[in-house]
Amino acid sequence: MPPMLRDYLFEFEDFQWFPVQWRDYMTDCLRYLNEVSHAFDPIVPKMVEWLRAHDTERIIDMGSGGSGPQVRMESLFRKAGYPVRITLTDKYPNTGAFHRAAQESGGRIEFISTPVDAAAVPHDLKGVRTIFNAFHHMPSPVARAILRDAVESGAPIGIFEVVEQRMALPAIGFVPIGVLLSAPLIRPPKLQRLLLTYLVPVLPFFTMWDGVVSCMRVFTPRQLERLTEGLTDGNGYRFEIGRLSPGIGRPRITYLLGWTEATAHA
C-alpha cells in the first residue's frame, strides 16, 4: 500500500526515545479529558449489541495509553446490563495508570505490564479487540497489519476515534488549555507534572503538538475502506465502517467493526 500524506507526520509520544514520564503524564491527561467529556458514551449501545452478537464479555484493549475511557466504559457496560472484563495493553504500557484502572474497577479491568504489539497479538489473548483513539498513531502499513492480524486470527475488532481532521485548528488552542486546567485535578497528584505544566511548560507544548497531529492523521471512513481492501476475500470476515453523530456539541465517533460471520449470532 503506498504511503498516505498522514504517514509523513509524527507524534512525539510514539518515539521510543521520548521520556517515559512525559509520555505517561500526557496519556494521564488524555485519559482524564476522556473521562470528563464522556466522549465515547454514545458508542456503548452499539458495542453492547456487538458483544452480544459474539457472545463474549472479554475485551482486549490495545493502545490503552493512560487507560483511556475504559474505567468509565466498564461502568457503563454494567449499567447497560452487560458486564465485561477488560484487559489493557500497550506498546509503551503506562503501568501506573493501569494499576489505578484495575483498582477503580474493582478488578474487572486487568492489564499486561509488558509491551504488546497490536499487529501481532499473542494467541492467548482471546476476546474482542478494541482500540480507542489510538489507531491514528499507526502508519498505514502498521494499521493494515493490525487489521490483517485480526482477520487471520478470526478475532473481532472494534476501532473508535473521536478526533477528526477538521478539529486540527481548534486543537491548537483547546489542547493546551485542557492541559493547564486538568494538571492539578489528575490523581494521584504529581509535583513534577505541575512543574512541567506551569514552570517549564513542556507538557502543554508536546500535548498540543501531538493533539493537532492526531487530528491530521486520523483515518477517514474512506481511508479505512482502503485499509481493508483485499483482507476479506473469501474468508468469511467482514467490516462495518461508519460515523456516529451523537448530536450538537458532541464529537462524532468514527468506527470500524470487524468480525468473522461464523462467530456472530443474528
Summarize the model shown.
The protein is of the alpha/beta class. The protein has nine helices and seven strands.
Percent range of helical residues: 40-55%
How far is it from the N-terminal to the C-terminal residue, by CA? Answer: 34 Å
Shape: globular
Strand order of the largest sheet: 3-2-1-4-5-7-6
**Run of helices and strands:** HHEHEHEEHEHHHHEE
The total count of helices amounts to 9
Rg on CA atoms, Å:
18 Å
Number of strands: 7
Structural class, judged by helices and strands?
Answer: alpha/beta
> What does the main sheet amount to?
7 strands, mixed
Mean pLDDT: 90
Strand fraction equals 5-15%
Low-confidence stretches: none
Walk me through this protein's architecture:
This protein has 266 residues and is of the alpha/beta class. Helix content is 41%, strand content 14%. The protein contains nine helices and seven strands; from the N terminus they run ααβαβαββαβααααββ. The chain has a seven-stranded mixed beta sheet, sandwiched between helices. Strand 4 (128-132), helix 5 and strand 5 (157-161) form a beta-alpha-beta unit. Helix 6 (168-182) runs antiparallel to helix 8 (202-217).
